[in-house]
Amino acid sequence: MIEVKGLNQTFMLGKKHNQTKLQVLKDVSFTVEKGDIMAITGRSGSGKSTLLNLIGGFMKPSGGQIFINNQNVSEFNEGEFSDFRLQHIGFIFQNFQLITSMTAYENVELPLVLKGVPETQRNELVINTLAKVGLADYQNHYPSELSGGQQQRVSIARALIIEPPIILADEPTGSLDSETEQDVLAFIQQLNRDYGITFLIITHDEEVAQIGNKQIHLHDGKIVKEELAR
Ligand SMILES: Nc1ncnc2c1ncn2[C@@H]1O[C@H](COP(=O)(O)OP(=O)(O)OP(=O)(O)O)[C@@H](O)[C@H]1O
What we know:
By secondary structure, this protein is of the alpha/beta class.
């Protein structure tokens, strides 16, 4: 489902006349099958977010290729990737990235608006998706009126609403207390089981990584360990 082949990422640092090159990913290759939960672990600065940003199409790789559903997405231009994301990829972030001036309902509705789904069809989808994450009674709450765990559920609903085959999650429980973390992890596993959604989860937390059936460990931009965790 996702095939990463010989991925390299280099950043140029400093001013034009005095630039240094920083290689953040070095020949990274791995495969994610449909229905996998893949945990990507590694210390701060090891290249985890860069890898997820490349797979999510937020930047172009310096070298190598990424195939999603047999399409070479590394060749997509920005517009093509935006369309592709709206069909195939949901995102969950550590700090939720909800729009503070929008209610839970409006945040979850947003991907449908971007996709051009008519208003008459949006209402039922939003209500059903909020119910799926256990927030049917919270649709009119603004993010500031919700707990961290509830905000993460809104962001999961926003990811789910397009029914994506893939969800990319960057430290999804990083801002949550341990009890809420367990709830969110159980929910991710449930979504994986019930809907076959493939997850790529970045974490520096070994406990979070344990929900993965696959794990890769990055060190200085290289895969140093690949494991089947269960
Ligand atoms: N746009 C950029 N320009 C220059 N350097 C960058 C850029 N993005 C990331 N880096 C550098 O790449 C390296 C890897 O960063 P990255 O965010 O991928 O690591 P990470 O493993 O996700 O770390 P953390 O766990 O702290 O989020 C770091 O040294 C960082 O400074």
